[in-house]
Amino acid sequence: MAKPFEKPIFDAVNVHLQTLDDVIIDPLGIGILLKNGPMFAELRPKTKWVALGFSLPRKLESGRLSRKVVEYGHKFFHVINVDDPEIIDEEIFDWLTEAYHFAGGTLNAYKRSSTSGASATNSVSDQGDSRGNGGDGMVPDDIDVPF
Predict the structure, then answer these.
(1) How far apart are CA 38 and CA 34, in angstroms?
(2) What CA–CA distance (Å, rounded) separates 109 from 105?
(3) Which runs of consecutive H residues, i.e. helices, occur in 6-140?
């Protein structure tokens, strides 16, 4: 059973998700997984807050982060504990957008097309995408036969 504070937090995040293409919202018993092919973010309900987690190609330095940033491979997993939907703002939306493009392999294209100024350009790593090759993460790269 969802706690009363969970839905307003999801709704605040979902407003931004509607601006992104083809986001898959996967509600599970452990929380809500947000996918663009691979998972790019998650909302995990806790006793008094919702843990909003997302992976980026860089380590954020922010007082908003609730836990130690975990590095795995060439990704960094970040968590923000959200107890009030009012704290979800443009900065968090920017991080979610970056995570969306990073997971989907479209980070470099997003960087090139971004016209929102220096903040978007400087906030995105030059690393490329979550697979490091620019390909589709849902298609094996060892198949020589075209689909």
Answers:
(1) 9
(2) 9
(3) 6-17, 90-104, 107-113, 118-123
On whether the pTM is more than 0.85, the answer is no
Both tokens of residue 10?
Answer: 């999801």
pLDDT in tens, 32-47: 999 998 999 999 999 9
Given the structure tokens 């939907």, which residue do they identify? 85
What SS3 class is residue 54? strand
Alpha-carbon distance 32 to 39, whole Å? 10
Helix axes 6-17, 90-104, angle to 10 degrees: 60
> Is residue 27 exposed (0-12), middle (13-18) or buried (19+ Cβ within 10 Å)?
exposed
Cα gap 43→25, rounded to integer Å: 10
Q: Report the pLDDT averaged over residues 110-114.
A: 79
